């Protein structure tokens, strides 16, 4: 038994049961972050400091329920403390071993209404932030309650800028971020990242969102951000029965943008895996019958240019086998795509293929070549239709050797119809339940899920590791459609916003960014080096090589990086970064000694000097550098790429010379 385990057991065996004081405080293990809880004038407050300086001024806490008035909190009745320092291993991930070092404070609060008579709030304090959640444990078993307000407030002290987009928009989380004075926030999705003029970075989000609505944050124009929960059709926020615990409300607090990106609080606040055997869950890379539809070269629906034919799929399988890809995604294989499929989502079959797609022949062919077919379930938000077929569908896929399914919910948020014909938001409690239900059914059939138009990630992959990846932001597909396509700053904003939630299936690797368009806002706004860097910068256990196959065969120089880059890591470090300006990330391949680096800039050309002190000391590496070529520019010359090799050690620095909208990708191949 290690010293750390002994210390943990000692801490857990003797929780300090303090006589409740009027104000209860606790500090993170390294005494960096402190929280204090108190009641005043009938309200319950928490206050957060970093290094002795108040970061979050006293903010409200607690929930309100239908059928009773807003509670007045009269005091703290008990306080309990604990500490824990453990490490755990991810079956796959951005970092294999994760340390969970936190202290804990649970405060019991008394209120003057029946449901708020007594509830607990538990804080977990880490040196890089905190999480807290409410436990309404006194509600009798079987009693139905309806949450009508979440009184949680976040009150950052000082002047902050924020990166955000308006919540409850019809395109869910697929919006460009804007940077404004944080006080201009009306209603924002989380993760909501802010930077103080003095440099402090905060990000507000939640962890372990289970059977509860997503939290949004509403600004009041004066720097207070209050929780708003995505409601049911009848305006109720959450429907619960008996005692319950809310998701964790999380605050990352860092001196740099990189500190936010390297925090593991999100995962640490989720429960350990519920799946005893995770050996069947495989990270990997895939190609697919996908971009050709977005470029309108083939169709999802049946007809003369149907994309999902046996013949076309075999072409992709051959390519995958030749170049070492694990999977081939095929969209439009199943009946239901003809006509207005978004309006007719209840017509989708998830078991019947179009006649020109022979699922048995295809999966036999793929198996013989060591490649897997990746399933696709576009639901168009017709959730009852999908749920009715879910078990049969997963059973079929399992029987033919499909072990990964991409799901999709293309429908305007707020118009998803439940079984009662009620209109639901894309991430209210109804869809939160549905997303997890799909993952649970899939797990029973040893199938992993990659959800598009998903409920935002809150670290549930720790508990259900078959929740491999998801979309939940503007991905590459917008670079096919416009208007506008993603500007260069998009991919230097999301590493510090969307990606703080978890992996994203961005589908990088489009080399022909122009794809025949003339207007900048109707084609990809990046260089080839940028597209390569995305594989490292944007963490996902599954990454697509999204472009048309012929575009890879035309650029073997650049394609080599996609072939070499892994999607499973021993460790990850954000080395440099400013939200919306640039980012440099290094990751060490899991089960190997090689390192990979990705760097991106916005529309500004940028030269960064990067120390290589993350490499193993005393070892030599061949740096295989893919950088913007002479005169590269996302506007005028996106395809210019220089590939060069040099021997480096941990004592060296590397100049990253990035073009406007450019980037750099490097493999450090160990030599000795
Ligand atoms: C939206 C998804 O994000 C995209 O990847 C997919 O091709 C379409 N829906 C069709 O399902
Ligand atoms: Ca999408």
End-to-end CA span: 35 Å
Chemical compounds bound to the protein:
1-deoxynojirimycin, calcium ion
Number of helices: 13
Q: Can you tell me the residue ranges where pLDDT is under 50 for at least 5 consecutive residues?
A: 1-18
Helix content: 10-25%
User: What structural class do helix, strand and pairing data support?
Assistant: alpha+beta
Summary?
The chain is α+β, with helices and mostly antiparallel strands and 672 residues long. The protein has 13 helices and 39 strands.
What does this structure look like?
- The protein is an alpha+beta fold and 672 residues long.
- The strands form eight sheets. Strands 1, 7, 8, 9, 10, 13, 14, 16, 17, 21 and 22 form an eleven-stranded antiparallel beta sheet that branches. A seven-stranded parallel beta sheet has the order 30-29-26-25-24-23-31. It has a six-stranded antiparallel beta sheet with strand order 32-33-34-39-36-37.
- β3 (33-40) and β4 (43-50) form a beta hairpin.
- The longest helix is centred in the middle third of the chain and has 17 residues, at 383-399.
- The structure holds 1-deoxynojirimycin (NOJ) and calcium ion.
- 1-deoxynojirimycin is lined by residues 290, 331, 378, 408, 410, 452, 471, 477.
- 1-deoxynojirimycin binds at residues 290, 331, 378, 408, 410, 452, 471, 477.
């Amino acid at each position: 038994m290690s010293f750390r385990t002994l210390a943990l057991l000692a801490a857990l065996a003797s929780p300090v049961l303090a006589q409740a004081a009027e104000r209860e405080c606790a500090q993170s293990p390294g005494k960096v972050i402190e929280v204090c809880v108190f009641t005043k004038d009938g309200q319950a407050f928490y206050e957060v400091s970093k290094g002795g300086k108040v970061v979050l001024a006293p903010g409200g806490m607690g929930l309100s329920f239908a059928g009773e008035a807003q509670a007045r909190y009269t005091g703290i009745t008990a306080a309990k403390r604990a500490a824990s320092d453990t490490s755990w291993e991810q079956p796959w991930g951005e970092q294999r071993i994760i340390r969970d070092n936190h202290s804990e404070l649970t405060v019991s609060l008394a209120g003057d209404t029946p449901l708020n008579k007594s509830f607990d709030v538990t804080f977990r304090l880490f040196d890089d932030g905190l999480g807290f959640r409410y436990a309404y444990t006194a509600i009798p078993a079987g009693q139905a309650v309806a949450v009508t307000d979440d009184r949680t407030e976040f009150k950052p002290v000082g002047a902050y800028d924020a990166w955000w987009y308006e919540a409850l928009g019809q395109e869910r989380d697929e919006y460009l971020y804007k940077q404004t004075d944080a006080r201009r926030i009306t209603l924002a999705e989380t993760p909501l990242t802010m930077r103080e003029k003095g440099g402090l970075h905060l990000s507000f989000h939640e962890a372990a969102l289970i059977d509860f609505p997503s939290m949004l944050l509403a600004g009041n124009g004066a720097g207070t951000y209050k929780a708003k929960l995505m409601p049911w059709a009848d305006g109720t926020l959450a429907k619960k029965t008996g005692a319950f615990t809310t998701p964790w409300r999380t605050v990352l607090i860092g001196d740099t943008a990189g500190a936010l990106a390297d925090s593991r609080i999100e995962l640490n606040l989720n429960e350990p895996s519920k799946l005893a055997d995770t050996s069947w869950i495989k990270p990997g890379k895939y190609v697919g019958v996908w971009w050709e539809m977005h470029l309108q070269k083939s169709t999802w629906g049946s007809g003369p240019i149907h994309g999902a034919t046996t013949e076309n799929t075999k072409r992709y399988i051959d390519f995958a086998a030749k170049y070492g890809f694990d999977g081939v995604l095929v969209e439009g294989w199943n009946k239901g795509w003809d006509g207005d499929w978004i309006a007719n989502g209840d017509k989708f079959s998830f078991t019947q293929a179009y006649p020109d797609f022979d699922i048995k022949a295809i999966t036999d062919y793929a198996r013989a070549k060591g490649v897997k077919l990746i399933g696709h379930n576009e639901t168009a938000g017709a959730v009852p239709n999908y749920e009715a077929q879910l078990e049969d569908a997963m059973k079929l896929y399992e029987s033919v050797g499909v072990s990964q399914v991409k799901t999709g919910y293309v429908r305007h948020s707020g118009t998803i119809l439940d079984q009662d014909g009620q209109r639901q938001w894309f991430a209210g409690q109804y869809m939160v339940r549905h997303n997890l239900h799909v993952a649970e059914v899939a797990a029973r059939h040893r199938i992993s899920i990659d959800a598009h138009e998903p409920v935002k990630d809150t670290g549930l992959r720790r508990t259900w590791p078959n929740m491999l990846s998801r979309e939940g932001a503007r991905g590459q597909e917008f670079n096919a459609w416009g208007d506008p396509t993603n500007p260069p700053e998009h991919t230097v904003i999301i590493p510090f916003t969307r990606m703080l939630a978890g992996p994203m299936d961005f589908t990088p690797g489009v080399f022909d960014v122009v794809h025949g368009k003339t207007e900048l806002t109707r084609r990809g706004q990046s260089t080839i080096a940028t597209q390569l860097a995305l594989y490292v910068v944007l963490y996902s256990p599954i990454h697509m090589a999204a472009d048309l196959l012929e575009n890879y065969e035309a650029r073997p120089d650049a394609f080599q990086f996609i072939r070499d880059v892994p999607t499973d890591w021993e460790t990850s470090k954000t080395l440099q970064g400013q939200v919306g300006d640039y980012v440099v990330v290094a990751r060490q391949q899991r089960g190997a000694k090689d390192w990979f680096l990705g760097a991106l800039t916005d529309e500004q050309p940028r030269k960064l000097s990067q120390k290589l002190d993350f490499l193993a000391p005393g070892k030599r590496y061949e740096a295989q550098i893919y950088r913007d070529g002479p005169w590269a520019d996302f506007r005028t010359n996106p395809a210019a790429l220089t590939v060069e090799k040099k021997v480096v050690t941990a004592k060296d620095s590397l100049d990253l010379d990035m073009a406007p909208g450019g980037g750099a990708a490097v493999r450090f191949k160990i030599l000795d």
